[in-house]
Amino acid sequence: MGGLFFVPIGIAVTIATVGFSSLQVSGASAATLAIALIGLIDDVICLVKNHSSGLSAWSRLILEVAVGTWFSFWLDATSIPSPYGMYSFLKMLVPLPAPLGLLFLGKFYLLLTSFTFVSMGNGVNLTDGLDGLAGGTAALAFIGMSIAVLPICSELSIFGASMAGACVGFLLHNRYRASVFMGDTGSLALGGALASMAACTGMFFPLFVSSGIFVVEASSVIMQVLYFKITKHLLGGGRRLFRMAPFHHHLELCGLKEPMIVAGAYVISSVLALFAGYSRRKNREPKEENVTLGPAVRDGEHAFGVAHIFASFNDTFIHVTDLSGRETLVRITGGMKVKADRDESSPYAAMLAAQDVSTRCKELGITALHIKLRATGGNKTKTPGPGAQSALRALARSGMKIGRIEDVTPIPTDSTRRKGGRRGRRL
After folding, report:
1. pLDDT tens digits for 353-400?
2. Where does the record locate the signal sequence feature (predicted)?
3. What is the predicted pLDDT for the residue at 273?
4. Dihedral angle at the C-alpha atoms of 212, 215, 220, 225, nearest 10 degrees?
5. For 109, how many CA atoms within 13 A lie in the half-sphere containing its CB?
6. Helix 3-18 crosses helix 23-49 at what angle (to 10 degrees)?
7. Contacts with 389 (C-beta within 8 Å, 6 or more apart), sequence order
8. What is the Cα 119 distance to its own chain's centre?
9. pLDDT, tens digit, for every residue of 83-105?
10. Could you tell me whether strands 304-311 and 368-374 are parallel, antiparallel, or unpaired per DSSP bridges?
11. Which residues, in sequence order, are bridge partners of residue 403?
């Protein structure tokens, strides 16, 4: 029942720091207390009966599944924001290691949440067999998870850090030789807290990594039982894969001292916690990409564009495209730079427009221009307005290389239209 001395303290520190504004922290705290209650009932029955067996295995499993199922449905019903988008179904995404990206589980996310509660609670419970083993490895697992969930939910990161601090404080009394034991109350609560952090953020892979000691301990028990039953069925007599399960008892029977086993578990858990936190942060940080606009050219080469300059008497249009003429790179008119009377020409406005065009072309990597000059044409003037020469000089002075210059002014065809008149006879 030693969990009563440190689990509520970790939750209280979190609430005092964060408050009740975070749905994730409120849900994780409630789930931790709910699964701790199962352990408390088990410990109380053991004390009353004065026997090591409390709740039956099936009763305890059903209660753990009930807590995990309740939390998964609560998670599905609440409006907890997803870090991957504004839609609610994005809460069902599980980040995988960097090459694999995101995995959408849909409703299987709820099953994974319930399974995580059961497996983590029992994993920590099986690890609690040596002085300081479960408390120290759980503290390191909380640190790894706090680093992993920090970019997604800083409040849950505070929750994990508070629980880690509570575990460290408990280790002062639970280290070798221990005077207080956490019991099922503490072990189930620690497993439930880790599972709730993973379920609220989708960080199941970092949880699996940082809780590697718990995974090994639980796997050793499963392997021992399966191996014994299979060999009993095939050979007529059960055989054991380990001298004793969980795995830390096997190491004891191999001659290792208890403090040495615990110290080795701490070292392994530290490496796993750092790896879990680092792998997640590496996955979350976007890679900086060098984005270049415009055509790709080699050193010493010029990237050409086409400047279509339409110069009437009182305005100048400068329209720069790529060589195919399909993509517009920049388009500026003299009227956008200077407001002048329509009866007056404004070469100054054309110069300002050309300077802006040159600046934008350099940003896009265009260093040279082919020029296509156009006057009004048709039955009107065939000579470009005064802004054309001003624009050409401004482009050249700004450092743009000038390629060929072509006059594309339209000429009259066989049309009967006359300036100021109508086409053909009016009936």
Report:
1. 888 988 888 888 888 898 998 888 877 888 888 888 888 888 888 888
2. none
3. 92
4. -170
5. 27
6. 170
7. 347
8. 26
9. 665 455 566 778 777 667 778 88
10. parallel
11. none
Q: Residue 93 is inside which H or E element, if any?
A: strand 93-95
Q: How far is CA 195 from the centre of its chain?
A: 19
pLDDT tens for each residue of 56-78: 888 999 999 999 999 998 988 88
Stated as kind and residue range, the H or E segment containing 51 is none
Q: Would you call 102 helix, strand, or coil by DSSP?
A: strand
The CA distance from 275 to 341, in Å, is 71
**How many percent of the chain have pLDDT more than 90?**
37
- Residues 338, 349: contact at Cβ < 8 Å? yes
Determine the residue type at 249.
Answer: H
| Residue count (the chain) | 427
CA 109, 277, 78, 215 torsion: positive or negative? Answer: positive
CA separation for the pair 373, 192 (Å, rounded) = 76
**Structural element, H or E, at residue 409:** none
Look at residue 342 in the predicted model and tell me its pLDDT. Answer: 61
pLDDT number for residue 102: 79
Distance CA 269, CA 264 (A): 9
Full DSSP string of 123-171: HHHHHTTSTTHHHHHHHHHHHHHHHHHTTT-HHHHHHHHHHHHHHHHHH
